[in-house]
TrEMBL record:
InterPro entries found in the cross-reference section: Cof, HAD-like_sf, HAD-SF_hydro_IIB, HAD_sf
Top-level taxon of the source organism: Bacteria
Pfam family, one: Hydrolase_3
Molecular function in Gene Ontology: magnesium ion binding; phosphatase activity
Annotated CDD domains: HAD_Pase
Signal peptide segment: none
Organism: Mediterraneibacter gnavus (strain CC55_001C)
Protein name: Cof-like hydrolase
Gene Ontology CC annotations of this record: cytosol
Amino acid sequence: MKKIKMIGLDLDGTLLNSKKEVTDHTKSVLEEAIAQGIIVLVATGRPLTGIPGQVRAIQGMQYALTTNGARIYDLIHEKTILSHPVPYEKGKKALEITEKYDTLQEAYFDREVYAQENQLQEIWRYHKNPHMWEYVRSTRTVVPSIVKWYGEAERDADKLQLMFADMQDIERARKELEEIPGLVLTGSLGNNIEINAQGIDKGIGMIELGHRLGIDRDEIMACGDGDNDLEMLKAVGFGVAMGNAEESVKAVADYVTDTNEEEGVAKAVEKFALR
């Protein structure tokens, strides 16, 4: 295995524990990696505003891959360096299709996420982890009707997300959404569908950023646990699945570390990246 020069880390279920926190030891390990010249970045389905302050405070972290690779930021210079949004007409059709299901529909644009007021008021029906409720409420811009607002906004979205109250609705909705060409569908929470533009995922984003920075894929390591991490672990030179990862993710990984409750990220970085 080549020397690791870049490490991409999923947040939920990977870097963050069940309380949505980064342990002091994990923070210390990542700062040591950065001090050794390794580029460490988050690779998340969240928007920029969804990256916890505790993560942003990791000394020396310069880049953030957000919304599954649809937008990559230079945090130090506060600018977007890569953007691959969902075309407006396709996003509009996806929201119209899924409006009939019992879903929390969200539209991600750069630093803002829009959601429907009545759906957010019953967030407990869609987000099963209570530690996520305040985060979601505090980072969403509320509109009366997400479908109506999006239709009038006429903007390309970084990502759309649908969280379902009824698990039986997911497969029905997925089949309908798969009929829209030019979209890629993933998930990370078990009861959600994340929609990105075709050809966009965390893996493509990691490789593209690496290319810009003169880093080969064989020099990139990534850690993840969910469906939206699968392509990333396959794309990079060394893919690490968490102990709590879905079996499909473990199957494509080069190594399975401990769970996010057992500081699996820190252990993998210490084992494979630190000198």
